[in-house]
Amino acid sequence: MILKTERVVFWDNVKMFLIISVVAGHMIQGAVDFSDVAKTLFIFVYSWHMPLFIFISGLFQSNKNPIQKIVFYCSIGFLLKILNLFLSVFLGNSQPTFDILGDADLPWFMFVLAIYTGIFYILRNQNKRYLLVATIVLACFTGYDKNIGDFLYLSRAIVFSPFYIAGALFNGQNFLELKKNRLFVAGGWLVFIGWLLSCYVWLDAIYFLRPLFTGRNPFLDTMALSGLYLRILTYLISSILGLAILLIVPTRKIVLTRIGRYSINVYFWHSTVYILCGKYLGFYALFQSSPMGKIVYLLLAVPISLLVSYWKYPVDSIRKYCFFKNATEDRG
After folding, report:
1. Of 143, 202, 299, 322, whose CB count within 10 A is highest?
2. What pTM was computed for the model?
3. What are the extents of the domains in the chain?
4. What is the pLDDT at residue 1?
5. Residue 268 and residue 312: Cα distance in Å, rounded?
6. Is the CB of residue 310 less than 8 Å from the CB of residue 320?
7. CB 50 within 8 A of CB 215
8. Is the Cα torsion angle 61, 67, 72, 73 positive or negative in sign?
9. How many beta carbons lie within 10 A of that of residue 22, not counting itself?
10. pLDDT category of residue 325 using cuts at 50, 70 and 90
11. CA 43 to CA 54: how far, in whole Å?
12. Distance from C-alpha of 83 to C-alpha of 267, rounded to nearest angstrom
């Protein structure tokens, strides 16, 4: 029998791996226009990191304090918008933008979690398996409506909703028993490494799926006939890769486990830190300098994530005010 403490450590490790991947993905995003290595890593990470993050959020979904959770997520989202606005002005942008009802940048995740919290509280007594099928069908046809995009975060809320519901249906305890089988773990590594190599070898063919993996774009005109099937394909890829990652992540506590515990803190601050470091410390030049420079640049995602995991303000303060207690554990 696996103890509850072990179960918490494992899911914190999963979130640690995911949030470091988020940081690394954002760090290389600016290099995809001139580097095939960046494009490879970008499409590799984006094919699974947010679907799996939303899956984990669904796994820890509960019907307790829904209003407080919605206020918390929206508060973090709006503060992140304000932080990004100030950062843009500080960096010399003469025409910064502020969109209160939509966003293509980091805040979308917080607002989508708020949407899921509200909707699935309302639908708490409905058949979740039926909702899973219904949201998959809805997402497959959403891409044909070009009016659905970043406004009200609607596109991502629809496209990623099956992962949230799948998380709510998932039996984490049974899965931890499954992880004891080394053959399954080996299979997870095989899938993980195989997909990375596939992204490198067939980069152009796989990178074509980028608009679908982001969840915010309608189908391209060239996808008019195949969009529905490509959406299903991306769901399969994200699901298989997500399962592989769950299999390979360790269950024991490690030095970096705390990063997963404070993943929202990391999500809030990481962009500001790497942008300022890139501008004033020359981090960006590392990626272009040499193969070793690329490795060092990517590895910087780890210390950046660890550093900002200690920056508890304002996330913990907002959590305290929303839930009327000093809650320190991040289970969002």
Report:
1. 143
2. 0.92
3. 4-323
4. 37
5. 10
6. no
7. yes
8. positive
9. 24
10. low
11. 18
12. 12
Q: What is the sign of the dihedral through the CA atoms of 152, 158, 159 and 164?
A: positive
Other Cβ atoms less than 10 A from the Cβ of 269: the count is 22
> Is the CB of residue 150 less than 8 Å from the CB of residue 108?
yes
Percent of the chain with pLDDT over 70: 95
Residue 268 tokens, joined? 């809030």
Distance (Å) of CA 39 to CA 47, 93, 196, 242: 12, 26, 11, 20
How far is it, in rounded angstroms, from Cα 162 to Cα 116?
11
What confidence score (pLDDT) does residue 329 get?
A: 44
Question: How far is 191 from 199, CA to CA, in rounded Å?
Answer: 12
Handedness of CA 126, 129, 132, 137 (dihedral sign): negative
- Return the ∠ at Cα 100 (arms to 120 and 134), rounded to 5°: 25
Any idea which residue has 């053959």 for tokens? Answer: 183
Three-state DSSP state, 95: coil
